[in-house]
Amino acid sequence: MQLIDHKIIRQTPLPPHTSSLFEYLFAGNGVFVRGVRPGLQVIMPVHLYNMPIRGLSELKPQLKLEPYPIPKDILISIWRQSCLARNDRGLIEILFHIQHRRDGWELRVPEQTQQTWQCQTTQPYHEAIAEFHSHGSGTASFSATDNAEEDGFRLYGIIGRLHTIHPEILIRAGLFGHFLIVPASCVFDLPDFLIDVAVRDQIAYQYYTINHNHHETQL
């Protein structure tokens, strides 16, 4: 099995996934990247063509989470613990891991270092399907630090504006430097008081690659 594979997509359904990291799919409407791990499958654009290539099938972004959705009480617990994460200067960041066990979804708070604008785990976390962290009173947006550190294959989320009655969340799928903003409802059963930035700001399905020239496009 290759680390990275390349496939020309002449027809669908897609052939089986055959790489240990990810594979590039050359479709009629662009180049896509696909990743598969237990509980999570993603297909996201890398580059879309202005003109279609005849003879190749077109693809769309996909996110498949199993089991879906992650329950509402996990997201509420993230919000509550984020509001309580403080030092003598005020709110500090806190990091969460979400993974699936035989009896359901599990929220963990790993050992970590915490500061006002930074948090970092001191434990390995290969089993985590999702990584979530707070931004205190700041907005739910991915920073340059987030982009540099979130280099695995999982879902990444941020909760921010915790000092308001309508905190914000933003979620993206990450695949080794490739990212796709997704609606939070694709992942969670959402409580009513949380504002999904992807939906509010109409940035759902924007895609970008951090380890190359930064590129964003709304589908």
UniProtKB/TrEMBL annotation:
Domain JAB: 108-160
Protein name in UniProt: JAB domain-containing protein
Keywords for the protein's UniProt record, in alphabetical order: Hydrolase, Metal-binding, Metalloprotease, Protease, Zinc
UniProt superkingdom: Bacteria
Gene Ontology molecular function, alphabetical: metal ion binding; metallopeptidase activity
Annotated Pfam families: Prok-JAB (PF14464)
UniProt KW Kinase keyword: no
Gene Ontology BP term (one): proteolysis
